[in-house]
Design goal:
The protein is of the alpha+beta class and about 240 residues long. About 45% of the residues lie in helices and about 10% in strands. The longest helix has about 30 residues. The radius of gyration is 23 Å and the shape is elongated.
Length: about 240
């Protein structure tokens, strides 16, 4: 079996617990008052500041999204374009919600983010946070609850691990205060956070919403509009 090559932006060069703990502490979390809008040690901003759902943009995204064959021409047929443009005006107010709904399902209802880049499966649950749901947080990971009401110093200690020799009083006190995260689990968490920090950004979230909105618009809202090829032959309707 060939080894999966890891892109540079997914690389995890840190090895010591203290270095990994320092990196994880740098990611930042989300903490609302009394946890009203969610909390997590890890939070990623996915607000869609720049999603462009204009008609021309949706057609461009659909064309490049892998759904439209190189030999197809119906997307440029003036009759289809005219009717689709009218349909866009009718459903425009729904497009953002459609795009967000389908993009969210990739996180919560698929295995896209329950595996690391190399295929390693991880036991993780995600949570949406913020007044408008503009943050994705790691709720639970391999039995650790990052949404619990603990300060950041608590988790930093968990990541860093106990600093005391075995069978000492200080070691026993530490074990009574903090749960033990094995090094292998810490490495998986580190790899997951590196991956999410790259994938979960406002820019990528906006692009994802555009992609799903384009598909829902063309294959859903415009499914009943006849599609003709360059020779004016009627193609099968979508669906």
């Amino acid at each position: 079996m060939s080894k999966v090559m890891k892109p540079d932006y997914y690389r995890t060069p840190l090895r010591s617990r203290s270095d990994i703990a320092a990196y994880l502490a740098s990611v930042g979390g989300y903490y609302s008052t009394y946890g009203r809008n969610g909390r997590s040690y890890f939070a990623f901003d996915v607000k869609c500041y720049n999603a462009n759902l204009d008609f021309e943009r949706l057609i461009e995204v659909y064309r490049k999204g892998g759904y439209y064959g190189d030999d197809e021409t119906w997307l440029d047929n003036p009759e289809w374009v005219e009717q689709a443009r009218e349909r866009h005006e009718e459903v425009q107010r729904h497009l953002f919600d459609w795009g967000v709904e389908d993009a969210c399902r990739l996180v919560t209802d698929s295995d896209c983010y329950t595996h690391l880049h190399d295929g390693t499966e991880v036991n993780v649950e995600y949570t949406w946070m913020g007044r408008s749901g503009g943050y994705i947080g790691i709720g639970k990971f391999e039995g650790f609850d990052f949404g619990k009401d603990e300060d950041r110093d608590f988790w930093h200690e968990v990541f860093r691990g106990h600093p005391y020799r075995s069978a000492t009083v200080d070691r026993l006190d530490w074990d009574r205060t903090y749960p033990t995260m094995e090094y292998a689990t810490l490495r998986k968490l580190y790899a997951l956070v590196v991956m999410l920090a790259h994938d979960f950004t406002p820019e990528k979230a906006s692009a994802e919403v555009e992609h799903h909105a384009a598909f829902r618009f063309v294959e859903g809202a415009c499914a009943d509009i006849p599609r003709y090829d360059s020779h004016q032959r009627l193609l099968p309707l979508a669906g």
